[in-house]
Amino acid sequence: MDLLTISVIAVGLAMDAFAVSVVSGFSIKNLKTANAFKIAMFFGMFQFFMPLVGWKLSINFTDFTHTVSHWVAFLILSFIGCKMLYEVLKEEEHRVERNLLDTKVLFVLAIAASIDALAVGVSFAVLEVAVLVPVIIIGLTTFCICFAAVFLGNKFGSRVPSDKIEIAGGIMFVMIGLKILLKHM
User: Fold this and answer.
1) Which one, of 18, 1, 12, lies nearest residue 123 by Cα?
2) DSSP for 132-147?
3) Residues near 7 by Cβ (< 8 Å), separated by ≥ 6?
4) Which residues of 97-112 are buried (b: 16+ CB within 10 A; e: fewer)?
5) What pLDDT is stored for residue 26 in this prediction?
6) pLDDT (tens digit, 9 = 90+) per residue, 74-106?
7) Does residue 32 surpass a pLDDT of 80?
8) Looking at residues 151-174, what average pLDDT do you find?
9) CA distances from 37 to 2, 26, 34 (A)
10) Which end of the chain is more exposed for a tag (fewer CB within 10 A), N or C?
11) Per 3-state DSSP, what percentage of the chain is helix, strand, and coil (rounded to 5)?
12) Which 3-state string (H, E, C) describes 94-127?
């Protein structure tokens, strides 16, 4: 597989993580470079490892991966988005602040945004592609795109009231999940 093809695949895979990173940037007040690095690292690492996992599982689970992956991503992202909307709509004294920098939250978001990478790993195995160079390019591309996306989201998010950002973020998470689901239907 040539470098251009791998690069296009890497950018395509990074788009879900880009969208989630922008939403995360919207929601983080007083953004520090370390925050953007942490978010980008989670997404980059998952985009690196998921194709390896898919490649390893390879042909044995191809049908299962293609059948279920989009539903898993949709459910996870929709759950997070609906939870964000619910928190905004709750009465002020009952609200719980959610930390998008929390390791558990980032873990779940990174899994949801990298499900497609699992399927790409399976396709690498089927096409007998040497997997190491592509997964490094995919991981680094995702890291760089997400790092910039957090700052982009934060720049625009600082101009909007926080409850409006939470509503927009919740809707965006649901829409990203829906886009993934519809893309595979």
Assistant:
1) 1
2) HHHHHHHHHHHHHHHH
3) 137, 141
4) eeebbeeeebeebbbb
5) 84
6) 777 787 778 767 777 775 554 445 677 889 989
7) yes
8) 75
9) 29, 15, 5
10) C
11) 85, 0, 15
12) HCCCCCCCCHHHHHHHHHHHCHHHHHHHHHHHHC
Answer for the pair 57, 65: CB distance below 8 angstroms, yes or no: yes
Q: Which residue has the tokens 């299962």?
A: 64
b/e map of 24-49 (b: 16 or more CB within 10 Å)? bbbbbeebeeebbebbbbbbbebbbb
Which residues fall within 8 angstroms of residue 176, CB to CB, at 6 or more apart?
16, 19, 20, 77, 81, 113
Task: Report pLDDT digits (tens) over 118-139.
Answer: 878 877 887 788 899 999 999 9
The two tokens of residue 145 are 């795109």
Higher-confidence residue of 122 and 25: namely 25
Average pLDDT (3-10) is 89
DSSP 165: H
The ranges assigned to domains in the chain are 3-183
Query: What type of residue is 40?
Result: A
Question: Tokens 């490892």 belong to which residue?
Answer: 49
Share of the chain above pLDDT 90, in %: 28
Specify the long-range contacts of residues 86-91, CB closer than 8 Å, at least 24 apart: 87/166, 88/163, 88/166, 88/167, 88/170
